[in-house]
Amino acid sequence: LMNARKVSESQITMTELVLPNNTNQLGTLFGGQLMYWIDICASLSAEKLTGRVCVTASVDKINFHHPVKLGDAVTLISSVNRVFNTSLEVGVKVFAQSFKEGTEKHTNSAYLTFVCVDSQGKPVKAIEAVPETNEQKRRFNEALIRRENRLKNRSIEK
């Protein structure tokens, strides 16, 4: 299939160091800074899969499970969960590691929807993402449920 790629081909791993300018007065990572990193990581996955510019259409709620501290290494792992037509869902998992304390915590997960666009910014059909592992197939199936909920909520908002 020339118009399809494996989900594994969309994976991006990004690591950032939490520096003083990324933190609040308590020495913990700003939520907005983490959201910025999540958006970049997810958009790289979308573009790696499609070979096109992909713009953020929506971000599902992001829950912050653990504070991320100054000096922690934040690793974000993203991959495309499912492609619809011009849109695609990308999942991002976030881990915070303290090398000093030898700890690693899963701090966040997020789902973002991107739209594949041409050079004029017009939506274009995105290349398919083929899930292979059981985990990828589960995320592929769950992405459809999340999409239906998003569309339902959008019609309620209008």
Explain what this protein looks like in three dimensions.
This protein has 2 helices and 7 strands, in the order ββαβββββα. The chain is an alpha+beta fold. Strand 4 (73-83) and strand 5 form a beta hairpin. The strands form 2 sheets. A 5-stranded antiparallel β-sheet has the order 2-4-5-6-3. A two-stranded parallel sheet has the order 1-7.
- Give the tally of β-strands: 7
Query: What Rg is obtained from the alpha carbons, in whole angstroms?
Result: 16 Å
End-to-end separation in angstroms reads: 38 Å
Question: Can you summarize the main beta sheet?
Answer: 5 strands, antiparallel
Look at the helices and sheets and give the structural class.
alpha+beta
List low-pLDDT spans: none
Shape, per Cα inertia axes: globular
- The helix/strand series, from N terminus to C terminus, equals EEHEEEEEH
Any descriptors?
2 helices; 158 residues; 28% helix; five-stranded antiparallel sheet; two-stranded parallel sheet; alpha+beta
